[in-house]
């Protein structure tokens, strides 16, 4: 075990920014091959960015939420598929830190270990001597093609016929992978389907969900006092996820302004698109929307960091607000990209133009079951109207 001083936020963000040219260079390859390029993955590992949510006793950084969000948004500015995959892996490392310490010793034996996860409880675990037998099929298994470990959501069968939600950690090699990730967007994530067939999971690798989500009760003794693991599941997850569409929107803005000096508006008298009042309105509106997305991500991150630092309890409305922030950031980012893509004209649809990929990626992430703006806004509205939440992921 190695304990080292964690780098400053500015240093970690600078490392992420330094990777953007490499990520953009490999983005077309990643989209074509539906997987992240090994050079990109190695660059992220070499920069130490896989350690953001690894316990310090294993050489990790235990970075605060604001730092994680800033890093993820920069990687997403390079390619949304990279940002989403790293976002998933950072929350997966956090989940691993909730498991018993002896399990963490096994998982984090390699401090650069990559861990994926899935939040859909599409598996059933049946108790067996010393653990449970897991069967299930999970789509959208982000990170499984790049990970040594994977944390799946499932339900654990009880003697009374009831089922309780759990998370289970399994070595990736024990899962069957189905190569079915043929999608319109976020193609580089390689979020294929995984299958578990009669897979035995030791009891120590099974984590009950409801005590974790509602009371922040987990199974790690050594992480119990760490600020990172005192944060509630949904708010810490929401902030990091919302940073991905924010980075995508920033990429769209850069792509638009890179082409602007050489563009005219076809079939008009405008020889320079930059001279048209319409363009001024479009870029201003997009800039405001990106600022609004950043506001929601930053506020969500700083709320977690502040409340954890001060030891404050979370109200149910604050938990729902975290989900709203994620949905609002996702929606505002998409609205900004829509404007910039429209302003980019017909030539932006060519496959060598990054705008078309950003546009498809932002549409895809807006359809994600956890980030979907409508779902998150409805949840927040229920709480504002005095109703109970309609999900346990809060």
Descriptive notes:
With 394 residues, the chain is α+β, with helices and mostly antiparallel strands. It folds into three domains: 9-113, Butyryl-Coa Dehydrogenase, subunit A, domain 1; 115-208, Butyryl-CoA Dehydrogenase, subunit A, domain 2 (Beta Barrel); 231-384, Butyryl-CoA Dehydrogenase, subunit A, domain 3, CATH 1.20.140. It has eleven helices and eight strands. The chain has helices at residues 9-33, 38-46, 65-78, 80-96, 101-107, 209-215, 233-259, 277-310, 316-344, 354-366, 373-384, and strands spanning 115-117, 123-128, 131-138, 149-157, 163-171, 176-178, 193-202, 206-208. A hairpin with a 2-residue loop joins strand 2 and strand 3 (131-138). The longest helix is centred in the C-terminal third of the chain and has 34 residues, at 277-310. The model has no long low-confidence stretch (mean pLDDT 96).
| Rounded Rg | 21 Å
CATH level-four homologous superfamily name of the largest domain: Butyryl-CoA Dehydrogenase, subunit A, domain 3
Q: How large is the count of helical segments? A: 11
Overall shape = globular
The tally of strands reads 8
Determine and state the CATH class of the largest domain.
Mainly Alpha
Could you estimate the helical fraction of the residues in percent?
40-55%
Q: What is the overall pLDDT average?
A: 96
Integer count of domains? 3
């Amino acid at each position: 075990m190695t304990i080292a001083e964690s780098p400053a936020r500015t240093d970690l963000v600078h490392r992420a920014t330094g990777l953007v040219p490499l990520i953009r260079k490999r983005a077309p390859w990643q989209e074509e091959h539906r997987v992240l390029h090994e050079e990109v993955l190695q660059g992220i590992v070499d920069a130490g960015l896989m350690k953001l949510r690894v316990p310090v006793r294993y050489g990790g950084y235990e970075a605060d939420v604001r730092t994680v969000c800033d890093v993820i948004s920069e990687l997403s500015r390079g390619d949304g598929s990279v940002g989403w995959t790293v976002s998933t892996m950072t929350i997966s490392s956090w989940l691993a830190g909730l498991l018993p310490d002896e399990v963490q010793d096994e998982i984090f034996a390699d401090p650069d270990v990559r861990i994926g996860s899935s939040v859909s409880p599409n598996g059933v675990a049946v108790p067996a001597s010393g653990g449970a037998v897991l069967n299930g099929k999970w789509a959208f298994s982000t990170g499984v093609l790049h990970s040594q470990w994977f944390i799946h959501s499932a339900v654990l069968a009880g003697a009374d016929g009831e089922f309780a939600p759990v998370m289970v950690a399994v070595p990736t090699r024990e899962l069957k992978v189905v190569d079915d990730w043929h999608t319109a967007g976020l193609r580089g994530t390689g979020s294929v389907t995984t299958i578990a067939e009669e897979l035995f999971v030791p009891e120590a690798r099974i984590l009950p969900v409801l005590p974790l989500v509602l009371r922040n009760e987990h199974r790690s003794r050594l992480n119990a006092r760490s600020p990172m693991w005192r944060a509630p599941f949904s708010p810490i997850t929401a902030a990091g996820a919302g940073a991905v569409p924010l980075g995508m929107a920033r990429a769209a803005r850069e792509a638009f302004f890179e082409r602007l000096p050489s563009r005219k508006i076809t079939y008009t008298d405008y020889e320079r698109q930059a001279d048209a009042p319409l363009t001024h309105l479009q870029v201003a509106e997009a800039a405001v929307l990106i600022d609004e997305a950043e506001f929601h991500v930053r506020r969500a991150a700083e709320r977690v960091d502040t409340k954890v630092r001060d030891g404050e309890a979370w109200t149910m409305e604050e938990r729902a607000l975290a989900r709203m922030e994620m949905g609002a950031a996702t929606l505002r980012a998409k609205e900004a990209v829509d404007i910039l893509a429209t302003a980019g004209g017909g030539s932006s649809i060519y496959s060598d133009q990054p705008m078309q990929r950003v546009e498809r990626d932002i549409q895809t992430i807006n359809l994600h079951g956890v980030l979907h703006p409508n779902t998150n806004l409805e949840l927040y509205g229920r709480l504002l109207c005095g109703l109970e939440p309609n999900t346990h992921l809060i």
